[in-house]
């Protein structure tokens, strides 16, 4: 421990006591030595008794500086942990900080370029366009072609400051973990670790540039999203250079209305973008706050989004996507038992969870949502409530799902803000449809056979049981009288049947070939191939024809 870190620790304690954050720990879990320490530092105690807890936490974080401000912003998205009032308070934290000296910015840029700024840029603007806790943005034009660009450069010493603060946060979180006991639901150590991963990623601007390049390529032909071009040869860990773009901040609805933007189309395109990123590309922008999203000025009737700051991106595994889709299906089917078992099957909650109690808790939060018409049910809200409930049953935090839930909530909220009559279900439907088509259509069958052949060969004795389980699951869901789900489930049952036949036929043909190559009796190998061929024809004929629903 250095003098600096001791001073910082004292500062954190002082500010925490000043805003009465110690009062926020329930007194029955506050150990005697905490109470003693607080008694000794009585003159620092709560000066803000009139304010509510969320506001006090917000003020304390504001005073503690950029790393805590960002932490507060991240916490504000953890609605599975915090109540809505607290989350809303923390969401108000502003990450705008005074700019650092442009001479330092210049020196930093030149050190990355290993050349004077004038070798690459004209009109470098010393007054920054924006200044945030991690980086500062300056404008310039490229010497080679006169293109307007922005340079994003890390703050001096930001890495050391972030590491020191995170270290202290982590030690404090461990202390709380110890005080609160292993079964506490806040899991401070886990939350801080999650934050560490996020903020450390943001310290590498090159990573942000690579993410932006990937996202830009995914949406090159899109009329919904534009990502500025990155000058990759001028992108480093502490500096990135990109095309300068111009747009209306998405939060400025008055300006959007004034220029005649088609807000309905814009809102729909937001939801469309989310589902395309998640279900088509499996790569989604997960830091969608208003400062990072702009709207095109030209062609207000055909508006598109301009996305900045690709520092935090999310991806989901195929398993996660499947469990998510099944969660939504089970929810719309009001099959709360299925939701509870899905959480256990996926390993998100432990295998010894009391399924009936979990089912009951899910029912209590989900059932009131059906008081609204289907098109008003928010997918993000459903996920949020499910995660909140699951946390009471010790759900292991899935950072990728938390990112997804927060992005979904944001996109839906933004859509509703831009166009209050937005029909979420109709907008999301085509994307879920095409994703489901991929899961149950003929292409998927061929792909699955190729991919899963070795696995199925190993699992063959259990195959009928597995197929039965899946069909049974389908039947359970099909009890529902919702037409849409019925059609989907029938397609899925057909797909399972067809998959089973096709996989078995492929295995028989392979067995036949192996027998033949090992000079086994000819009738055995021909028999295998013949039966395999018949099963293949049956499987192929029974494959589902994907229909729109
Ligand atoms: N390519 C660009 N063209 C025009 N303006 C830009 C561009 N990139 C960034 N900006 C401006 O700089 C601001 C900050 O950029 P960015 O969000 O990338 O920085 P940041 O340090 O990551 O900030 P935060 O942490 O708040 O997201 C943006 O809100 C925007 O106003």
UniProtKB/TrEMBL annotation:
The keyword Transferase applies. Residues 93-341 form the ABC1 atypical kinase-like domain. ATP binds at residues 129-137, 152. Coiled coil: none annotated. It comes from the Bacteria. Is probably a protein kinase regulator of UbiI activity which is involved in aerobic coenzyme Q (ubiquinone) biosynthesis. Belongs to the ABC1 family. UbiB subfamily. This is Probable protein kinase UbiB. Pfam families: ABC1. Pathway: Cofactor biosynthesis; ubiquinone biosynthesis [regulation].
